[in-house]
Amino acid sequence: MKRSIGAKPFAYPAPAWVIGTYDAFGTPNAATVAWGGICCSNPPCVSISLREATYSYTNIMEKEAFTVNIPSEDHVKETDYCGMASGKNENKFETTGLTPVKSDLVYAPYIAEFPVVIECKLIHSFEIGLHTQFIGEIMDIKADESVIDENGVPDINKVRPLVFGPEARNYYGIGKNLGKAFSIGRELK
């Protein structure tokens, strides 16, 4: 029997992404978000949701661009810090030792140390309630050579991305491979 736990903002897994933006002075900012995901395949798009009170909200609205930086397990402390501090008060790149790199496609920085970067131009924003959802069209994905597989795409086992458990407020690594998508289900036919 299932027990109702009420309407809460969590689903498994939530990403642990770090969003890169520039402020009005061209200073790079990094902010951790968990409310995000792929939202369209053609054109390829991601969505993220931010509160209006955040520094990144203003940066995205003004510059109409952002990057999604996918951290590996090696950068859990830096990822967490970017979600705790405000870019209004400090330069999080200086504090964490992460390196901002200017995208050549959108007006936003990406993080050199993170294995996968998604460069996005803002195409829509929607006020939902406490959060505004930003839809970014993916202009390019950059990945470290060390995480790219024989098919030319990032290998999740090499990327070792972080995921967030919103209910307990913990970060996790990925689990084991359970089977090939669009294939293992055929066993039921």
TrEMBL record:
One of its GO terms (molecular function) is FMN binding. Residues 10-164 form the Flavin reductase like domain. Its cofactor is FMN. SUPFAM superfamilies: FMN-binding split barrel (SSF50475). The keyword Flavoprotein applies. InterPro entries: Flavin_Rdtase-like_dom, Flavoredoxin, Split_barrel_FMN-bd. Keywords: Flavoprotein. Belongs to the flavoredoxin family. This is Flavoredoxin. It comes from Methanolobus chelungpuianus.
